[in-house]
Write a structure and sequence with these properties.
Hypothetical Protein Ychn, Chain: A, globular, about 20% strand, about 120 residues, alpha/beta
């Protein structure tokens, strides 16, 4: 069963990004068919050099680097979302496949379950 995790929110000011990452790591113990999608403000989850201490928030973005240790390799980012925010693939902590909105939608539809954070 293919499970998709969709990250749509900014990394700080709310807990959904951290909760989503925790859910991904926990689910990886039971399933190898995981796909991660970063859409809209969710692309900020992967940006290098976050300084959460300035807003008295816990830094967790570096934990995304652990995904490869859990054999999670299907990581996708919306290219349009990156462009809208003035970002590119070099700004990201980890390698993610840049997709068009249409390609992203196709991959999302192939997932049997979707969880959004």
């Amino acid at each position: 069963m293919s499970i998709g995790f969709v990250f749509r929110s900014v990394p700080h000011g709310q807990n959904s990004g951290r909760e989503g990452l925790d859910a991904v790591l926990a689910t990886s113990a039971y399933s190898e068919a995981l796909q991660l999608f970063f859409i809209g403000d969710g692309v900020w989850q992967l940006v290098k050099g976050q300084q959460s201490d300035a807003i008295l928030s816990r830094e967790y973005s570096a934990a995304f680097k652990m995904l490869s240790l859990y054999d999670i390799e299907e990581i996708f980012v919306c290219g349009e979302s990156l462009d809208q925010r003035g970002l590119n693939e070099d700004d990201l902590l980890i390698d993610a496949e840049r997709l068009t909105p249409v390609s992203l939608q196709t991959k999302l539809h192939r997932c049997q379950k979707l969880l959004s954070y």
